[in-house]
Amino acid sequence: MSFSTFTRLSARRMALAATRTRVLPQVMRKANSFTPITRSFASSTIRFNQQRQAVSEILKSELKLETESSAAPEEVETPALFQDFLDKYGFEIVATPGKNDAHIFKKTEAGETVNVYFDVAQVANLPYDDAMTEDVTNEKNNLEEEDFDSIADNFANVNVVVSKDTDGSSVAFDLLMNLQEGSFYVDSVTPFASKDAALNESAEAELSRELSYHGPPFSNLDEELQETLEIYLSSRGINEELSSFISAYSEFKENNEYIQWLENMKKFFN
């Protein structure tokens, strides 16, 4: 497993006085004009219902396809594969139904809690350009800025927060994960005085974390410090097997969320 750094809207009033009751011929003409409008409205209602029904039928078809696919034997066995990884490294999954965010955590013998966060939609839809990755390896110094933007699209963000159970002090590692390599690249390392400061999900806490000093670029750190931090992460289960788990679990959860999305859409258009 390898670690490195990756450098990325007057309402106009209606003149009601203009319509006067003494102008009877106009009133009658307007009254007579209502009939075709009623017919048009009825016709429009039918069309709207047909359009809604068309959407409903497509949703039903897609839902049937997805549920049948998910019931395939290989899909049924997938959760067991997750459990193998969870049992081996002591991680537990935190249920997050209806959300893109995924969260797993573990307790260590050193009195720490390791939290891992990732976006299943980002991971499940992660593109991979094999040729671009080869360019990065062989011609890194010759790449243009737009090339680096393209490369960044091939990585998923993973956030690891390790907290001491004694005083709650924490360190957050912002990582970039490359699924093809099964590797994690360290982007930044940020210490926090408390677990709440590191993990609180309020808007204020998130803003505070964004404004925090995240240290120098990881590659600018002393090489020995880089290596020891990488080894520390590996010892906490941040390795190639975690990358494989994140990839498989993201596909599984994203598909389940999609099926539920189809169910909710179907209820509306029925």
From TrEMBL:
* Domain of life (superkingdom): Eukaryota
Mind telling me which GO cellular component terms the entry cites?
A: mitochondrial matrix
| GO biological process terms held by the UniProt record | cytosolic ribosome assembly
Which N-terminal stretch is annotated as signal sequence? none
Which positions, given as ranges, span the membrane? none
A Pfam match:
MAM33
What is this protein's record name?
Similar to Saccharomyces cerevisiae YIL070C MAM33 Acidic protein of the mitochondrial matrix involved in oxidative phosphorylation
